[in-house]
Amino acid sequence: MSLLDAMNELKQKGFNPKEGKEYNPYEPIPDDTYLMSFDNATHNAKGDRDFLMLTFSVVQGEYEGRQESIFPSLAQTKANGDPMPNSVIARSISEIQIIGETLDNPVPDKCFAFENETEAYEAIAKALQPACGKVLKVTIKTTPNKKNPQYPFRNYTFEKQEQPKVADAKDPFNGTGDTIDINDDDLPF
């Protein structure tokens, strides 16, 4: 990408230096309903904690191309070592299973039948791989976070969407009867 390409991208995104606000392509997508594609489910680690990351991309509208990542946690302990409330884990399990159902790719209960979250994350990421590329409607709604107001909660609802039709590519020469048998003597080398 050249400097001119970067400048053109800024202009397309509505950047105005007179407003005094720096352009941030990673700024969260505003609350609304979006048509998104499910891009990936990955099991990652940072430090001594691992996590599941579900990635979606907006496929039409003003925010087309922007990504939204969701990090449902199955951690059984908090960062400070206290036990994680069952309600928090249950909410994450329900969110994962709702996403699977919305994508017509159910996440089976056996993906959660492990003693630790690491194995569960691996099983869930594998179970969701066939759904990559499917589209769905995602509604994003933020709510205040009393403990950390600078990090509001992002809440999601998911809705099934009719999948785009894939072109049926057929061999245009199949069945024409115009076939030629070629042997080694017909080749110039």
Automatic annotation (TrEMBL):
One of its GO terms (molecular function) is DNA binding. Residues 160-171 have a biased composition (Basic and acidic residues). Residues 160-189 are annotated as: Disordered. Keywords: DNA-binding. The keyword DNA-binding applies. It comes from the Bacteria. This is Single-stranded DNA-binding protein. It comes from Lactobacillus melliventris.
